[in-house]
Design goal:
The structure is a single chain. This protein has two domains: 306 residues, Rossmann fold, CATH 3.40.50; 139 residues, no CATH class. About 1% of the residues have low confidence. The chain is α/β, with parallel strands linked by helices. Helix 5 crosses helix 7 and helix 13 runs antiparallel to helix 14. It is built from 18 helices and 18 strands. It has a 14-stranded mixed sheet with strand order 1-4-3-2-5-6-9-7-8-10-11-12-14-13, with helices on both faces. It has a two-stranded antiparallel sheet with strand order 15-18.
Length: 531
């Protein structure tokens, strides 16, 4: 339902006819053919399910009432409708409202108001107010922090007694800006770093600045999250209570739509940023939960795979108190979660230690393991302990062989049920024992060496060219992978094409593929400039 208030101040919004065409034809479900044109980024930004990762892990509560202040064309509106009892979204004009209504015409818990916050009367107080980058555009040149405090106070006036505001904002000192990416509003590289604050359309904050604005507004209870690589397509979300460089190196896929001004490679810097404890300063974006009561979300970190097929899209969340929950992000994945539990049970029956998985209320609950992953141990040993590095791979291969019955009379070691996710990132090491968890995929009558190949391939990708005591070629020779590596690459590419929806996200993968040689040469040219 659309509600338009007469006399409400109408905010400018860049209308996108392509977005309107896609939504009116199929509610935005099929947009892949539009990702190859000049409007590819607009299409991706407004319609990709990857956008949902900013909020799809968060626990809003089924009885909550939410207000979405900057809904745009509804990239996050569906997530709120899925999780909340009622949702009100503000649209800047009637054209945008009509597009939102068409996109979510099957939702009976969504109401769309046309107008600007403060200029329209809303019917109730809200448990949650979601504001994506609105605070960046709340001020003006030279107006100071007070204008942003007033903006937060305006939002706070619509909160229920225990309500919370969820803010997203980009970081003036985000690592991508140090790498040379163009600043969000000025479209100039290094503008924010050089403190050129003549922004015409918005202002970026650093963390302490944003924190002081929160305190000055009276919202003294807050919690910072760091969605990486940014708030637009988060793949992992950390809080101050939890970070992990190994998660970043294995899960994170940074991107830049415009790479023309880059002089450093963002992907290579995250491990050092986190290891040195400076993620708060360098994260590209902030997600802030704030309110007047101390009732912040109990999730400490989240790993998200919204880019996968709907049957295999998960949010894996670490919570305060030491529990881990894993739930599918789309209804199509419920059976897959049950299969995951069954796989863990089967592996345990083979005499392999596992992390207990319980299927409760549509999600998997696991205890938190305060132990390094095998992946972490391999990365640590790679450049300093040759014997340990090889020993760990030998033990992993023994575990793979033990995980399933073998096909009799086969020329090589063929497993009846190969758990292809028996890779180092899915194994904890505690008291020198391996503990397996998170085994989603099974392939019947599959070579055991294919599973080992996957572990080796992705571990060396995580190493990212780091100097190692054992080369990739040496491991290939040790386990007889040289002749089969190419065949396994083909198998893996086919699997990834399905699992990671390679065709749908081909353009995103292009944005994520930074050419390090070009970047290095551009940096050299910058060094040659004489002013």
């Amino acid at each position: 339902m659309i509600v338009e208030k007469n006399g409400a101040k109408q905010k400018e919004f860049a209308r996108d006819e392509i977005i309107e065409e896609i939504i009116k034809s199929n509610n935005g479900e099929d947009y892949s053919s539009f990702l190859r044109g000049e409007c590819a980024w607009n299409v991706f930004y407004h319609l990709s399910p990857m956008r949902q990762s900013l909020l799809n892990w968060y626990d809003f509560g089924k009885e909550s009432i939410a207000l979405e202040v900057n809904g745009e064309y509804g990239a996050l509106t569906g997530v709120l409708c899925d999780q909340c009892k009622e949702v009100i979204t503000l649209a800047p004009n009637h054209q945008v409202a009509e597009i939102l209504q068409k996109r979510y015409e099957n939702r009976d818990n969504l109401m769309i108001y046309v107008g600007e916050l403060g200029a329209i009367d809303l019917p109730r107080r809200f448990d949650f107010i979601v504001d994506i980058c609105g605070i960046e555009r709340a001020g003006g040149i030279g107006q100071g922090e007070k204008v942003y405090e007033n903006y937060l106070n305006l939002l706070g006036g619509y909160l229920s007694d225990n309500g919370k505001i969820i803010l997203a904002a980009d970081n003036r000192y985000g690592i991508r800006y140090f790498c040379g990416a163009k600043e969000k509003y000025s479209q100039l590289p290094f503008a924010g770093i050089n403190q050129f604050f003549e922004e015409q359309n918005g202002h970026l904050f650093h963390r302490q600045e944003l924190e002081q604005i929160l305190i000055g507004s009276g919202l003294k209870k807050y919690k910072f999250y760091y969605p990486l690589p940014d708030y637009i397509v988060p793949q992992v979300v950390f809080s101050d209570q939890r970070d992990s460089s190994i998660l970043v190196s294995e899960r994170l896929n940074p991107y830049n739509v415009d790479q023309s001004t880059l002089i450093a490679c963002e992907r290579k810097l995250y491990r050092d940023i986190i290891d040195n404890g400076v993620l708060k300063f360098f994260a590209n974006s902030f997600l802030v939960e704030c309110g007047k009561q101390n009732n912040m979300c109990d999730i400490i970190s989240a790993v998200l795979s919204t880019d996968r097929a709907k049957t295999d899209s998960y949010a894996t969340c670490l919570k305060e108190g030491g529990s881990v929950s894993k739930r599918n992000l789309f209804p199509e994945g419920k059976k897959r979660l049950q299969l995951l539990c069954h796989n863990i049970w089967n592996i345990a029956q083979r005499g392999i230690k596992t992390i207990p998985h319980q299927f409760v209320d549509g999600q998997i609950i696991m205890p938190y393991m305060d132990a390094p992953t095998l992946s972490n141990m391999l990365v640590t040993a790679a450049d300093r302990d040759r014997e340990l590095f090889i020993e760990l791979w030998d033990r992993l291969y023994e575990l793979i062989l033990k995980s399933s019955e073998r096909v009799p009379d086969a020329e090589e070691e063929i497993l009846r049920e190969a758990y292809i996710d028996l890779v180092p990132s899915n194994i904890f090491v505690l008291d020198d024992e391996f503990y397996v968890y998170d085994q989603e995929f099974v392939r019947e009558n599959c070579p055991a060496k294919y599973v080992l190949y996957r572990g080796i391939k992705y571990t060396y990708m995580a190493l990212g060219g780091m100097k190692t005591e054992v080369s990739l070629e040496e491991l290939k020779e040790r386990y007889g992978l040289g002749e089969t590596w190419e065949a396994f690459e083909k198998m893996e590419n086919e699997f990834i094409a399905y699992n990671r929806q390679s065709e749908l996200y081909r353009q995103f993968n292009i944005w994520a593929d930074s050419n390090r040689w070009i970047i290095a040469k551009r940096g050299e040219r910058v060094g040659d400039i004489i002013v």
